[in-house]
Specification:
single chain, alpha+beta, Gyrase A, domain 2, 2 domains, 3-stranded antiparallel sheet, 9 helices, 5 strands, DNA-binding protein
C-alpha cells in the first residue's frame, strides 16, 4: 500500500485580501491576478503564492525568512494599482455572466468596447495568441448598469426581425419561381403591332429617353 504523502504547512504565512474593485468578486479574476503577480516573481518562489477565494496567500518554511521577506515586498508592490489590471476574455465572461458567443458578437458590433489587445505565448509551446482586453472600469460600469440583460433583449428582437425578413424573401422567391413556371395563355403573348405606342418615334426624337 503506497504511503500517504504528508504535507507540512508553511511556518511563514502572509495574506492579502483582494478588494471587490480589483476582483469583482470573481474567482476567475482572482486567479488571473494571482498569475499576473506570479509572473513577476522569481521562478523558485512562484508556487509559494496561491489564492483561496479572494485571498492571496504566501507561505514558506521557517528557514526561508529572507525569501519570504523579499517575496512579500514584491507582492505588495505588485498589488499597487492592481484594480487597473486589464480584464482578459475568460474574466469578463465570468464577471458579466456571458458566453463566448456573446462576447464575440458584442465586441464585433461595438457594444463591448475593447481596451486593446494582448499577445502571449502558450505555456510549453512556440505558438502565440492575441486577444482583446477590457478596461476594468468599463466592465464595472456594465456590471452596475446590468446592461447585459438589455443587450440580450436586443439580440432576441434582432433575430426575430431577421427571421421575418428571411421568411418574406423566401416567400417572394417562391412566388417568382411559380410565376416563371406557369404556362402562358394566348392573351399574354406579345403582339408588337398591338402593343406599339402611338407617337413613340416622336417621343424618342425629343431625346427624353437619353
Amino acid at each position: 500500500m503506497p504511503k500517504k504523502k504528508i504535507i507540512v504547512p508553511p511556518s511563514l504565512v502572509r495574506t492579502w485580501m483582494l478588494s471587490s474593485t480589483a476582483s469583482f468578486g470573481s474567482a476567475v479574476r482572482a486567479k488571473g491576478i494571482l498569475l499576473e503577480i506570479r509572473a513577476g516573481l522569481p521562478i523558485a518562489v512562484r508556487k509559494s503564492l496561491d489564492v483561496d477565494g479572494m485571498t492571496l496567500i504566501l507561505g514558506m518554511a521557517d528557514d526561508c525568512e529572507d525569501e519570504f521577506a523579499s517575496t512579500s515586498s514584491a507582492v505588495i508592490k505588485a498589488l499597487e494599482g492592481i484594480e487597473n489590471l486589464p480584464v482578459i476574455p475568460r474574466e469578463i465572461q465570468d464577471i458579466l455572466g456571458i458566453s463566448v458567443g456573446e462576447r464575440h458578437r458584442w465586441l464585433k458590433d461595438g457594444r463591448l468596447q475593447s481596451a486593446g489587445t494582448r499577445t502571449v505565448r502558450l505555456s510549453g509551446r512556440a505558438r502565440q495568441i492575441t486577444f482583446h482586453v477590457f478596461d476594468p472600469r468599463v466592465v464595472e460600469d456594465l456590471l452596475d448598469r446590468g446592461i447585459v440583460d438589455e443587450w440580450r433583449e436586443e439580440d432576441i428582437a434582432t433575430r426575430a426581425e431577421n427571421r421575418r425578413q428571411a421568411a418574406y424573401r423566401a416567400k417572394l422567391t417562391r412566388s417568382l419561381r411559380k410565376a416563371a413556371k406557369a404556362p402562358k395563355t394566348p392573351g399574354t403573348a406579345t403582339d408588337e403591332a398591338a402593343t406599339e405606342l402611338h407617337g413613340w418615334d416622336e417621343f424618342d426624337v425629343d431625346g427624353l429617353l437619353r
